[in-house]
Amino acid sequence: RLYQRSFDILGLLLIPFVVFGAVTSRQIILLFSGPAYVESAFALAVLLWVVLLNTWNSLAVNMLIALKEQSRLLIIYGSVVAVNVAINYFGIPRFSFGISAVTSVLSELLAMVPLLHFLKKGIGITPNWEKAGRSLLATLGAASPLLLQQNLGLVWKVTIFVPLWLTFSFGFNSISLKEIRDMLYGLRKATA
Questions:
Q1: What is the DSSP secondary structure assignment for residue 40, as one 8-state letter?
Q2: 3-state DSSP assignment of residue 1
Q3: Within 10 Å of residue 53's Cβ, how many Cβ atoms?
Q4: Rounded to an integer, what distance in angstroms lies between the CA atom of residue 145 and that of residue 139?
Q5: What is the mean pLDDT of residues 57-80?
Q6: Is pTM, for the whole model, over 0.90?
Q7: Does the pLDDT at position 186 exceed 80?
């Protein structure tokens, strides 16, 4: 139950961050790095998904360690590293650094499959993807107007995105007022 709750909360917090960052990656690069690095906006947009996937994978990794199954991690991540290195070795000369970003996402997905398999086999835990799916739909709904308004500044996009995300999230039932209160209470308690 704690695993599922953590999975849901991390998805709820990271999915909007990832989608908003992906949609505004060009503006974020321009703001922090300048026009010389604008070509890296694609890589940023793709790499943001690694944050979400890696966070979810970290939950599974910690569960496997708690179950004393860490030897499985060596096999999983050893295989993932081999695939990652091979794709980058052959892909970077042909497709530039963008392939590295795509390979990173692929690596997290490749790791997720056996991690979730061993979690289910070991203690019968399988994440329920329903809440994450609803959160993704709500976030995509909130981000869609940003794609139509490319000329808006980053601050305006945040101003539009946040209320739309809350509205869509309540509409898709991906978050409730109680969950917001609980998270704020936990944050206040953690910082006190």
A1: G
A2: coil
A3: 19
A4: 11
A5: 92
A6: no
A7: no
